[in-house]
Amino acid sequence: METTIVAHYKIALAGSEQQFTCAEDDTILRAALRAGIGMPYECNVGSCGTCKIELVSGEVTSNWPQAPALGERDIARGRVLGCQSRPNGDCTVKARPGPQYVSACPPQRFAATLIEVRELTHDIRQFRFQLAEVVNFLPGQYALLQFPGVDGPRAYSMSNLDTDHACWDFQIKRTPDGAGTGALFDRVKIGDSLQIDGPYGLAYLRSDSPRDIACIAGGSGLAPVVSIARGVAANPAMDGVKVHLFYGGRAARDICGEDLLQALPGYGERFFFHPIISMPDADSAQQWAGKVGYVHELALEVLGATLAEHEIYFAGPPLMAQAVQKMLMQEKVPGGQVHYDAFY
Ligand SMILES: Cc1cc2nc3c(=O)[nH]c(=O)nc-3n(C[C@H](O)[C@H](O)[C@H](O)COP(=O)(O)OP(=O)(O)OC[C@H]3O[C@@H](n4cnc5c(N)ncnc54)[C@H](O)[C@@H]3O)c2cc1C
Ligand code: FES
């Protein structure tokens, strides 16, 4: 059998004693997080810019040289994206690690087998992957999935809990003309094995907070908030915590998730599902007797002034995330109570 030898390089953090090892096929950010070093990041897919570091010495190759988060000024200043940079040899980088970026569950790379696909709506499917062994994650975290024939991995949040038979579930919305979701929906079959890297993400359930929880999600953002609700239900120390899950779509056919919450003990008493659609006329085939408007407006209508007393988790497309952020600022919700990983 042929064995591929992967070189490992030393990455030193300028101005500190800290250093770690990075495999030539790994990225500097992900290797740092695997080593328990809290390098700042958010999306992990080249879009947010939070992972910018300065290359003091050594050379790297970018997995995605056109990544939108890196501008010409960055390049001129010797900055690179930690989430996209593979080392070509030993390197020294300038970064500002922080303890808040260290994951309680260090990310790992592994293969997993697709064992089940379930339709949730006309364009959202749940994909269940079987791992060889349990890999821990916190409710609300995400992983990177590499699809065959697609450049770069894509980020997807787990919707279940890590106690679920060594399986990771993802609820994925097909993006029109999307390379990754096109490959997953059309070409990946039951029994196929994919490379997964995770867990990542900072919008995980704060299980030590006694506050009630408001989860606000739109479209592709359902998975992490379902995982958070399930995490609360499974944690006896959070028995007194209520969870309101607000979920927005364009039309009636976009709404799903109520059955997932109904399965939790205490549905209607501690766990509440509040759906809303923004374009009732977009789907004449399905009647809608529920709320019409935007999901952030519904959260404010239901929780009113008590919103600022909640722990808030939100996930979804950029426009929705901006509207939620603006509303939370207007309502003076303390920043420390707000948790999200922007979706791109
Ligand atoms: C933290 C996070 C969590 C997410 N969770 C979910 C979820 O639970 N469910 C869900 O449906 N969606 C989720 N998304 C969105 C998802 O990752 C994809 O952006 C979406 O599915 C569209 O992918 P696509 O390949 O079909 O579309 P495309 O338009 O082909 O690609 C979209 C994204 O892929 C990345 N990308 C594109 N080209 C490259 C390249 N050459 N190299 C590297 N990266 C590239 C970019 O980030 C781009 O925005 C999440 C995103 C993030 C950042
Ligand atoms: S661009 Fe690297 S973490 Fe977002």
Mean pLDDT: 96
- Tell me the number of strands: 19
CATH class descriptor of the largest domain: Alpha Beta
- Determine the CATH superfamily of the largest domain: Nucleotide-binding domain of ferredoxin-NADP reductase (FNR) module
Query: What is the total domain count?
Result: 3
CATH topology of the largest domain: Rossmann fold
The neighbouring-strand order within the major sheet is 11-10-13-8-9-12
Secondary-structure element string: EEHEEHEEEEEEEEHEEHEHEEHEHE
| Structural class by secondary-structure content | alpha/beta
Bound molecules: flavin-adenine dinucleotide, FE2/S2 (inorganic) cluster
> How helical, in percent, are the residues?
10-25%
Principal-axes shape call: globular
H/I helix tally: 7
Judging by the overall fold, what is the CATH architecture of the largest domain?
Answer: 3-Layer(aba) Sandwich
Uncertain runs are none
Rg estimate, integer Å: 21 Å
Secondary structure layout:
Layout: E1 8-13, E2 19-23, H1 28-34, E3 52-57, E4 60-62, H2 72-76, E5 79-81, E6 85-87, E7 91-94, E8 108-119, E9 124-131, E10 142-146, E11 154-157, E12 167-173, H3 179-186, E13 193-200, E14 213-218, H4 222-233, E15 243-249, H5 258-262, E16 271-277, E17 291-292, H6 295-303, E18 311-315, H7 318-330, E19 338-339
Parallel strand pairs: 1-7, 14-15, 14-18, 15-16, 16-17, 18-19
Antiparallel strand pairs: 1-2, 3-5, 3-7, 4-6, 8-9, 8-13, 9-12, 10-11, 10-13
Bound molecules: flavin-adenine dinucleotide (FAD) and FE2/S2 (inorganic) cluster (FES).
The site of FE2/S2 (inorganic) cluster has 13 residues, from loops.
